[in-house]
Amino acid sequence: MDVIFSALSLAAIYGLVAIGVSLTWAALGMLNLAHGVAFAVGAYGGWLAADHLSDSAPVVLAGGVAGGALVGCAIYLLVVVPLYDRPNWETRHLIATLAISLVGANLLLELFGPSAKALPAVFGEGSVTIAGSVVTADKLGAIVSAAVVLGAVAVVLRRSRLGLGLRVLTQDSEGAALVGVSRNRMALGVLALSGGLAGLASVLLAQTFYANPDVGFVPLVKGLLVAVLGGLGSIPGAIVAALVMGVAEALTATYLGQEYVLMTLFVVLAVVLLVRPRGIAGLLEEARA
Question: Which stretches are annotated as coiled coil (predicted)?
């Protein structure tokens, strides 16, 4: 049971990152390599909120979300506004977001220094026993917080104008413009939302690890793996893939060692893509059919 709760807490964090990756791909055809910067800035946003405002859970989590969302807005201004609808968007946005990732990490290093910053235990130091397994407060808090936020995102995407506009935009971008869906407004909303989700994930992860300038690199890699495994652009696929990768990482770390985790995740991805090139989203579509 300990492995199961570890897997669920990892899946909660990876799911938040991967859904942001899938949303930007679905809306803009954009693989955001600066998503890790949103993660890192979110961690520092939570640390600043705890240091200057309050170390209560709502304030620290809101600081992380705000930091990540601000990076999403900056990516919109620096990448989407000048480059979208221009020739070679597919290549240019990769170069631009990679540049933002490198510059962002160095800016964080200059502003906060190389030393890691510890965030407060916003969910407390205690633990609970569930089905005979001791679950620490940080793991339980991450699972519950991510579940609530992902449920809220699902409702927003299904019932709000943002969600409706996103579905229209992904199906027919020219038709979306004809019926009054603003692609620029949608792009800004999607990037702010995906950045906010990454910022939340960073605060949840920082309950175990620390905030540092490079903290977003590994979550970016794992988030990309999860998004590709789930099928780029598929939100249900990303959630299922996050669970699969969470279980794979928890089992690998427990029985083989942490050094084999990334290798195992790449092997899982390769095996699934060999069988189903469209990832888990293809399996879900076949099941619905």
Answer: none
Residue 102 CA to residue 33 CA, distance in Å, equals 10
Q: What contacts 60, CB < 8 A, 6 or more positions away? A: 46, 49, 50, 54, 119, 120, 122, 203
- Mapping DSSP to helix (H, G, I), strand (E, B) and coil, where does residue 136 land? strand
Q: How many CB atoms lie within 10 A of CB 233?
A: 18
Compute the distance between CA of residue 250 and CA of residue 272 in angstroms, rounded to an integer.
19
Q: At what angle do helices 137-159 and 235-255 cross, to 10 degrees?
A: 160
In this predicted model, what pLDDT tens digit does every residue of 172-214 receive, in sequence order? 666 666 666 667 778 888 899 999 999 999 998 877 777 888 8
What's the sign of the alpha-carbon dihedral 71, 77, 82, 85? positive
Q: Please, what is the end-to-end C-alpha distance for the chain in angstroms?
A: 34
Quote the CA–CA distance of 251 and 268 in Å, as a whole number: 13
280: nearest Cα among 13, 10, 5, 22? 22
| Structural domains in the chain plus CATH codes | 2-288 (1.10.3470)
Rounded Cα gap, residues 121 and 138, in angstroms: 7
Residues whose CB falls within 8 Å of the CB of residue 22, separated by 6 or more in sequence, listed in order: 227, 230, 232, 233, 234, 235, 237, 238
Q: Is the dihedral of CA 101, 107, 112, 116 positive or negative?
A: positive
